[in-house]
Protein: Aromatic ring-hydroxylating dioxygenase subunit alpha
Amino acid sequence: MTAFVRNQWYVAAYGREVGRALLGRTVLGEPILLYRTEDGRAVAMSDRCVHRRFPLSQAPSRLDGDRVVCGYHGFTYGTDGGCVYVPGQQRIPRTARLNTYPVIEQDSFVWVWIGDREPGDTVPPRAPWMDSPDYTVVSGMEPIDGDYGLLVDNLMDLSHETYLHGGYIGTPEVAETPITTEVDESAGVVYVSRHMDDAECPPFYAKSTGIEGRITRWQDIEYHAPCLYLLHSRIAPVGAPGPNADGSDPHAFHTEVVYGITPSTETTTYDFWAVARDFALGDQEVTDFLRENNHTVVMQDVVALNVLQQSLNTEKAGYQELSINIDTGGLAARRILARLAQAGTGQRSGATAR
Ligand code: FES
Ligand SMILES: [Fe+2]
Structure:
């Protein structure tokens, strides 16, 4: 199992999922209740009533204004987690308080801070395409019955597109083209690039861009451990001019593929997926096609990772993997996750020792 990394921001939901209905999510094993106050602020607190642990996200629990009323015996909590009402007595026990979680709403995501200390100046990494007027976005979330490390591995090595996603986003050139990998240890970011000069155009891009011939296809990955994965994808007809020195790139089509990789439990993961594009912005047919096609691709990964987790569960301890050049990005990501996990644990045990 891939160790959890605490003292980090995680995507708990899309902003659109958090409203005046109670939403329950489990992040790093912690049950979290999310809702929006009457003035529109997203709040996050423990999803277990302090009385008999009833999940506050479950009916008949409900909101009363900005307060949450437990559906079992009526304990009532304010947005600061403090209990304001218990049935049958005036005195409210001092310990009747829910843990609350720092929340930042950014780039259409609701991020929650999971940790033993306050976030201080630490802010979530950015995915500005998610709510930019210059992009049109399709997005969704799929749960995976697998360790989040399996999804990190999957996304860091796109050679699997050729095999698992053939006929959708995969073509022979993806697996055939070598990658370059760079690591920014201090920032905890892994970069993996694969630039294909002359490649078949897969249906995903042929149908959405209208390109008929072969393409130049660039895949530039940025993985901000632990939770945010970005794939900058550039598609242009072979022979089209490259990007200009000022960064503009009028002859190419761009998609920004965004994943929030959120460990839920040790064996389950939330896969928040999105594709933002800078072309055919108002074209509903393209939007519908990309949503449908990308959802199919995501499900191909989900099914494969579920199967993989099942098979790993039956492995004898100490099995040996074999890694090759395509795995350098994934291995770098694992190293960073292990280092961050250890750092988080160190802080926690340090605090306990005092
Ligand atoms: S379990 Fe919530 S009030 Fe009893
Ligand atoms: Fe995939």
User: Anything to note?
Assistant: Residues 346-354 have pLDDT under 50 and may be disordered. The longest strand covers residues 253-265.
